[in-house]
Amino acid sequence: MAAGKSLTPFYVALGVIAVAGGALIARTAMKKPAPLTVDTVAPLALGPRGVVIGSDSAPVELMEFSDFECPWCARYAVLQMPDIRQRLVPSGRLRVRFVHYPLNIHQKSPWAHLAAACANEQGRFWAMADLIFENQDEWVENANPTSLLEGYAQRAGLDMGRYRSCVSERRPWGQVLADKHLGDSLGVTGTPTFYVNGHLLPDAPSADRVAQIVDSIAPLRGATGVKAR
Questions:
Q1: Residue 69 covered by a domain
Q2: What's 204's domain CATH number?
């Protein structure tokens, strides 16, 4: 009867294959982007919070804490904010400050806030924010919202190379988190939340109500230029 061959080399080879396969899986997993959430660790940005449109010398500031996935925020952005920006901001009496406040309950909102913050790097925040809100149902219901957000960025006139690198590197995420921390420090719990000159409003003001507030604080005396940033 022939002598049995040793299986030791076979098991050694099998072990080498298993180790190599495990390393390949580990490397592949490392290449996947980490989830983007409001709990993501990132250095907080310095400087003023939010994105502003309007004169630095405007006597009235309307500050909104907003979440791109919030349906009430989208409704306000579509129905009220265009009138506010067109009717009141150019007078030089009002500036509007949008403050990022992605809620923990929304899983896709962080990607929209990152996209808008990347648009802000190119001075196109408001155009991008409008498209994100106007198409909220589309990207929220999509399994991969980042592809749709990229399409909005192109429609907003962004340099797509710069936009893609910004999203990939998550450069302005610290700014988004800093905005969120500001809201937390003020006790903001829901969106949209509004402040006028630092005073909390009880609800979302209509464009007419904002006009009344502006008129009461700064009666119209003439127009000045508009500065957006």
A1: yes
A2: 3.40.30.10
Residue 47: pLDDT band (50, 70, 90) is: low
pLDDT tens for each residue of 120-143: 999 999 999 999 999 999 999 998
User: Residue with structure tokens 């049995």?
Assistant: 4
Q: What is the distance between the alpha carbons of residues 126 and 211, in angstroms, rounded to a whole number?
A: 21
- Note down the domain range covering 74: 51-217
- Model confidence at 89, pLDDT cuts 50, 70, 90, reads very high
Alpha-helix residue ranges (DSSP H) falling in 63-198: 71-79, 81-87, 109-121, 125-134, 136-140, 145-155, 160-169, 173-186
Model confidence, pTM: 0.79
Q: Are 99 and 151 in contact (CB under 8 A)?
A: no
In whole angstroms, how far apart are CA 30 and each of 16, 171, 207?
21, 19, 48
Give the C-alpha separation, 152 to 132, whole Å.
7
Closest residue by Cα to residue 136 from 214, 204, 76, 54: 76
As a whole number, mean pLDDT of residues 165-173 equals 96
Three-state DSSP class for 139? helix
- Nearest alpha-carbon partner for 49 in 172, 175, 171: 175
Query: How many structural domains are present in the chain?
Result: 1
